[in-house]
Amino acid sequence: MTGTDAYRRLRREVHDILEVGGDAHPMGRVVNGFIITLIFLNAITFAADTVPELAERYGWEFKAFNVFSVIVFTIEYVLRVWSAVEIPMLSRPPRGQARLRFAMRPMMIIDLLAFAPSALALSDRSPAPQGIQAVSPAHARGLLASAADARPRRCR
Asked: Does pLDDT of 151 surpass 90?
């Protein structure tokens, strides 16, 4: 197997895990379950952080969890865009164009808007105000889709 074949195989597996789910790859259910759990915990943490006593006592833990969540959501987003060229209707255009087309889908824009303010707030050069949490309610559309279908979003 050449390096190019291994790269394509990895990209296909990432696509199957994130977009097709348990039907195509056993890790799909595990990853989807992890993301759903992270969304729930993020919503709980977001709410708990609005209670002054809890924010004072657990503020550092809430912030650490938010940083972890933003990192996970960013990695998930980047991997989805990277592996989008495995979707049959996006396999024909040039890869950059196919990825851009995928990233411009409404659900991908919602995902980006869900974590981007938090990611910006974590950087020192951010115009975003400090204290922004990962916006779980916007990311919750994945939770709603999964709860209704018990499978990850499909892009085929």
From this structure: no
